[in-house]
Prior knowledge:
It is a single chain. The chain has 2 domains: 2-117 and 327-337, 2-Layer Sandwich (Enolase-like, domain 1); 128-310, Enolase-like C-terminal domain (TIM Barrel, Alpha-Beta Barrel). It is α/β, with parallel strands linked by helices and 339 residues long. Strand 5 and strand 6 (109-116) form a beta hairpin. The protein has helices at 58-67, 74-78, 85-96, 136-146, 161-174, 191-205, 226-235, 249-257, 268-271, 274-283, 297-310, 328-337; strands at residues 2-20, 23-36, 42-47, 71-73, 101-106, 109-116, 128-130, 151-155, 180-184, 213-218, 240-242, 263-266, 287-290. It is globular. The structure holds 2-succinylbenzoate and magnesium ion. 2-succinylbenzoate (OSB) binds at residues 50, 53, 128, 130, 153, 184, 186, 243, 291-294, 318. Pfam families: MenC_N, MR_MLE_C. Belongs to the mandelate racemase/muconate lactonizing enzyme family. MenC type 1 subfamily. Keywords: Lyase, Magnesium, Metal-binding. The active site is at residues 155, 267. Pathway: Cofactor biosynthesis; phylloquinone biosynthesis; Quinol/quinone metabolism; 1,4-dihydroxy-2-naphthoate biosynthesis; 1,4-dihydroxy-2-naphthoate from chorismate: step 4/7.
Amino acid sequence: MIYTFKFRPYRRRFVRTVSTSHGKWDIRDGIIVRLTDESGRVGWGEIAPISWFGSETIEQALDFCRQLPAEITDETIFSIPDELPACQFGFESAQEGVGRWGNGEIGGTNVQWPMPNAPCPMPHAQFSALLPAGEAALNQWESLWQQGYRTFKWKIGVDAIANELKIFELLARTLPAISKLRLDANGGLNYEEANLWLWTCDNLQANRELNPEIEFIEQPLPVEQFPGMLELSMCYGTAIALDESVATLKQLIACYQQGWRGIFVIKPGIIGSPSRLRKFCQENQIEAVFSSVFESAIGRQAALQLAAELSQNHRAIGFGIDHFFEQEHTWLQSLWKTL
Ligand SMILES: O=C(O)CCC(=O)c1ccccc1C(=O)O
Ligand SMILES: [Mg+2]
């Protein structure tokens, strides 16, 4: 199959700054990809790298798109190197999506426009909502609760541990006991701090009827300290989820082979080839939690499709939708006009 290929870089500002142990993040840079097959059917894809997380940079992704010819084939798509995992995802999901996008009308013309024709592929999905870091979490959870969220994620390893433990205690006391809380350190703790967090969580779980369930701590230690996380996972009742350590499929397979049987956070947007992820998940039963990379509705559609196919558990998926960017719909429409 031959496809006409077009792409368009974008830049969007988050409604609220995202704070992690890596610092502040205000702007999401990405690339929208459009493939048109010989019969005129269109497929949309999104490349949304996070280089500090282990994917290629936006510049590398742009260089790759720029050197491609105006017509590409399946072979082009399936031979994108592993060094460009966000590109593998963007192109492969665009290719898989050819013909699956809805018709709409913009300015009186009928178009295959970049909105999914199916609603969310997970009608009964439970989504997790990201709380703001620090004390702001204490004022924010309630409006998210009213929107229907029951699982929350709070970033730790951003401020001094003593301050965060105080806020955590307040947060745990305020959140309804039927809610779930995930803590995400983004690799920002040292071994002692990770022990202290896990110990605190275990203690809190001794009073389960009074407190929310602490579902897991995500990536407590830096990627290089895999043995430390393996050890910690055997010492506490509170679970550990690997995230940065399993950013790409190659890393995920390496952690699995080194004996990790805890939770794997899968960010489809940067993991690499969706078809190879599918194959791995079908051959190996892993406990996966799917999560966003703050992509637009285009990348989200493909990521949720994969989550629907591959997650075989009760865990909420980390796509706090509709509160990261403003005016998604308008943005998508204007984007269509330029492609
Ligand atoms: O996983 C979620 O619940 C939301 C997404 C999220 O936290 C995230 C989004 C972009 C980059 C890194 C991360 C992260 O999990 O560390
Ligand atoms: Mg994380």
